[in-house]
# Entry
Amino acid sequence: QGYSIPQWSMPMAGAWVLWYFSGVMRRIYPKLGRVLHFSNEKMRTELGIEPRDIRSTILDTCYSIIENGIVPKMDNYRGPPTPLVTSEESDHKILTSNIET
# Structure
C-alpha cells in the first residue's frame, strides 16, 4: 500500500562507532548479536489466554500507527481490511463485561 520496509543491516563496526555518539546505541549495543527466547506457556496454562498470531499482530500495529498519524498516509493507502478497535472501545468492552458478570 505504498510503504517499504528498510531491509539493510548495519555492520558491527558502524554500530560500535555510533556507540560513542548515541545514548540509545549505548543501551542497544551490548544486546546486538544475541538470540533472545521468550515463552508464553505460563500465560496459556495459568491464565488461559491464547495469543494472536504474530502476522496479524504486526499488521494491526502497522495499520494503527498509520491511522493515528504517527506514520503519514501514502497516496495509495487503502486502510485496514476490517475496522480497528480503538483503545476506548476495548476499555468499554472490558468494563461492561466486568459489570455483567
User: Anything to note?
Assistant: The chain has five helices and no strands.
